[in-house]
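User: Structure please.
Assistant: Input sequence and predicted structure:
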Amino acid sequence: MRLGAVTVNSGADLVICDEINAATFTQANGGGTTTIGGPLNTSAAGGIGLNGNIFAINDTVTTTGDGTFTLTNAGQLIIAGGGDLNLDGAFLQNGAGAVQSAGDIDTSNDGITFQSAVTLAGNVAFSTNTGNGDILFNSTLDAQNAGVEDINLSAGTGTVTFNDAVGAGVRAGAITINGAAGVTAVSTIDADSITITNGGAVDLNGAVDTTGEFNSSSTNFDNSGASITTNDNDLIIACEDNLTLGALLNAGAGALQIWAGSNGDGALTLGGGLVITSDDLSFQAGNGNGPDTTASIDLVSNAPTFLGAAGLGTSPRSFTLQQDAAITDADIPVVEQFGDGIDDITYTLQSDDMTVTVGANVKLAHSKLNLTGADGVTVNGALSLNSLSISADNDTDGTGNVTISQAINTNGGLFSSLGVNLDNTGGTINTGGGDLTINHTGATVLAAAVSSGAGDIDIDTTGTLNVNSTINTTSGDLTLDSDDAMTFNTDGDITTTIGNVNVGANRDGVLSTAGDVTTANGNITFTKAVTLTGPVAAQPPSTAPSTPAPTTSPFRDQLI
């Protein structure tokens, strides 16, 4: 039968050897060591109140009926692995003595507070369930063995607050925070890894150092005054709304991914003098789902510095700027913001809801450039690159046109373009030896010269294909296909030295041509019907005189 209120007024040592079930349990003044060696269970709102010197909790403690647990320890408090606390009210440790814990604490939507320094003696989980229960550490939190003991904190709709250093004495193991209205760290954090999921507003104010991954997902994020270093491990920060980076981030050889506005509306702001270090660096704002198309990133105003894993004098090998808003030259950092420039780095500019318009060669020269625009991509300035990949209409609404009005040279690297319509009026494309691929679903207009040297050329459209200027390779093969009409105008000549030319092998579009096809030592194949619209020379590797063919004729390997 359950006892009523149990009160222990004094005693040098108090030992609970077997199970106690009471309405409440109170120790008024313990001068020695209090040991809970058997289950302690209370059922009334008064719960458990222990006031004494040294405490050892070796068995479970349970309260029901909104029962709280308040423990005032002048000496050390030791919570063993078997001493889990299952409480229907708040837990408060408010004595001056230190705490050593290997036991879990679980409350029913009520707070968990430690006023004194806490040392983890094993892996622990502290949870306030799904309600408004805060978890508060008002003094230091350390592991017993460097990087070994883990702590898992779940605060429901409450907050998690570290008011003193974490892991400064002995590095903590993995710190995991699952769900909280906010996470605040007033001082430094040293841990094996840090994971924050559904973290509310995350506010870091002291340096963070991990030997593993740092991964934070929250509503807002601010690390002003708090550098984050992951020692060659991934550093990932994502938040639903605004994200402010106020101190250096260093992932070294790990990936560094920053994402603001993951719910579609938010901005990414970088403070002045910021240094960001990673070989794989990615910035994103917005979610690409509309209808809001304003989520943006400012990598220009405060001129942050981007370094590679080796630090000063190096640059990231991969750099991504991805946002819902349109991207223009004004949004692109200057080359001087990169530790060693941008030569040969994989450089991605992506607008998930709008357009990408670029032409500032001084900001992009010799990079491996990827351009993605949901509503289209425009190149309006001459670019000298190491490769260029274009993808338009990635939201599949039919608006993703590609317009090239100035010369593009990829210096031996590939050129590829995906989208709806393509028009290169005024913009020659020369890969200098790299493959050249155009794959579109609308009208493709080649109005300026296209050349690839030793690279292959593959032009494939489910719409129409109009060739109004020359297409040239040396040893590269050339393939042209269209579902609709293909038209080669008078200036639409094809020339290759030893490459093969294949027209119409893969789609149903027929060809109308007034352009010549010349190869010194390659094959010429027309698979579908051809209509001649002017004098045409098709010269395969033969010295035999050409023979006339009907003006409309399906033929293969014939001379015209």
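Helices lie at 361-364.
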